[in-house]
Design brief:
The chain has 181 residues and is mainly beta. The chain is built from one helix and ten strands.
Length: 181
C-alpha cells in the first residue's frame, strides 16, 4: 500500500499520450470506442476516464441497452447527455465514463505503446448514423463555462503518465462514422 500512496502523491507533469477513435463494427450496428497510447505507462494504473461523442441532433440518436465494456473490472456507462446546446445546436453530446474499479482492475487495461485497444461498444435503436464522432478538442461546447455547466470533454488518468487528477487524453484519430449502405 505504501508504494501506491507514493505513486498517488507524485507531482510529475501529465503526459497527453492517449488518443481515441470511434468505429463501426462489421455488423454496421455496433459502435466501438478504441484507444491507442503513444507510450507504455509505468506503472500502468488506470483510474478514471471519459469519452464524449457528438451526434447530429436531427438523428434523434439513443444508446440502446447496456454499454459493453471490454476491459475486465472496468464498467463503462452512459453518464450524461446534452441535446443541442446553444454553443453547437446541430449536435447532441453523450458522455461515457468508466466506473467500478474492482480489486486490482486498475491494472487491467495493459496499455502498450502504439497498440489500439477496443475499450467499449454500444448500439443504437436507429442502427448506423452518419456523422457520429468523438467530440473534438476545439468543439465550441467543450468549454469550462458552457451553457449547461457540464464537463463534456474527453479524459483519462493513468498514474504511469502523470498524477491523480491529470488528463492523459491527447486527441482523436480516424474520422466520423460513415455508414455502408
Amino acid at each position: 500500500m505504501g508504494t501506491l500512496l507514493s505513486i498517488l502523491s507524485t507531482t510529475a507533469m501529465a503526459e497527453q499520450v492517449l488518443e481515441y477513435s470511434i468505429k463501426m463494427a462489421d455488423d454496421n450496428e455496433t459502435y466501438q470506442v478504441v484507444m491507442r497510447p503513444s507510450t507504455t505507462p509505468t506503472p500502468d494504473i488506470s483510474l478514471t476516464g471519459q469519452v464524449t461523442i457528438r451526434v447530429p441532433h436531427a438523428a434523434q440518436f439513443q444508446v440502446m441497452g447496456n454499454v459493453v465494456s471490454t476491459v475486465e473490472g472496468s464498467d463503462w456507462i452512459e453518464a450524461s447527455r446534452v441535446d443541442a446546446p446553444v454553443e453547437n445546436a446541430n449536435y447532441d453530446y453523450i458522455s461515457f465514463s468508466f466506473v467500478g474499479l474492482r480489486a486490482n482492475s486498475a491494472h487491467n487495461y495493459q496499455w502498450k505503446e502504439g497498440e489500439e485497444k477496443l475499450i467499449f461498444s454500444f448500439k443504437s435503436s436507429k442502427g448506423c448514423i452518419d456523422g457520429i464522432e468523438l467530440m473534438p478538442l476545439d468543439d465550441p461546447f467543450n468549454v469550462t463555462n458552457n451553457s449547461v455547466n457540464t464537463n463534456p470533454g474527453n479524459q483519462f488518468t493513468n498514474l504511469g503518465w502523470g498524477g491523480v487528477g491529470e488528463n492523459n487524453y491527447k486527441g482523436n484519430y480516424g474520422s466520423a462514422i460513415a455508414c455502408t449502405k
